[in-house]
Amino acid sequence: MAKLSPHGRQLHMESLVVDAHVDTLIGVVYERRSLGERSDEGHVDFPRLQEGGVNVQFFAHYIEPQFKPDRALLRFMQMADAFYREIQANAEVAEVAYTVADIRRITSEGRIACILTVEGGEVLQGDLSVLRMLHRLGMRSLGMVWNQRNDLADGVGEARTGGGLTHLGVEAVKEMDRLGIAIDVSHLSDPGFWDVVEHVEGPFIASHSNARAVCPHPRNLTDDQIRALAAEGGVMGMNFAPAFVHPEDATLEGVLDHVDHIAELVGIDHIGLGSDFDGIGRPPRGLEDVTRMPHLTQGLLDRGYSDDQVRAILGGNFLRVLERVWGD
Length: 328
Known about the structure:
The strands form 2 sheets. Strands 1, 2, 3, 4, 5 and 6 form a 6-stranded parallel beta sheet that branches. Helix 1 crosses helix 12 (293-302) and helix 6 (128-136) runs parallel beside helix 7 (167-179). Strand 4, helix 6 (128-136) and strand 5 form a beta-alpha-beta unit. The chain is globular. It is built from 13 helices and 9 strands. By secondary structure, it is α/β, with parallel strands linked by helices. It has a single domain (6-326), classed as Metal-dependent hydrolases (TIM Barrel). The longest helix has 20 residues, at 307-326.
């Protein structure tokens, strides 16, 4: 396990650190805990984000299966209400970011920039007018599917069908491009991934997916997919879910193995972080919760990455994509 050096800690705490996916709102919406209070439950809250040096956090609004399809929009509204109430109650440490300028301002003030994302296109209820209204409500990234099929596409759990994007899914991609919503292909079926590549106009993200060549799980991306994502200028966030890290023994070093593979394949400009904290069970050894994030920085340094390369992986790469998708 990487021993944290003074330089590693300083580099981490002075860097812009972006985590592109956590499922923490599930615990919040059930009122099990508050983001403002340090908890022994789960992996993320505001005090632990501060201790772990994460200053830009994507909060996924995950639509649980029991709310699909007919109550998906209602469930989103319930979660968004909890999200905004929590941030309003903790305004001294966090604020919702709608633009890259917001991210820069909020983080320069020493606070956490919180980004509203949705995991599951069921929330659109088959109507792109809902997509436009969700953008007005602050949604800045949409994961088109979870694992099942919906009105937009097939997820990885539907691989047998060979299905990709529906006609509505193609129109949704085009409308997200127009609005400036980051298109997230994590959980999308392989044919759906290639449909996005065909129809997208700018960079897209895989917010929490690893390399299938390192760990052969269908939720991870193949080398060809990683090359295609890189060719469009996109970024993929390293997922800490043990099953996506290593088939048998998930560790911090295993996460770094994915970084090494992707860096060798397409360069470091397409690698970020997407922990999946609070959406996974036992995290990899060495990454037990968000307070351990500085150890990932140390691990990158120990593997020979330069300070500038580490800064890019920690957050600079995702910020570059947001600048292109959202504008400044």
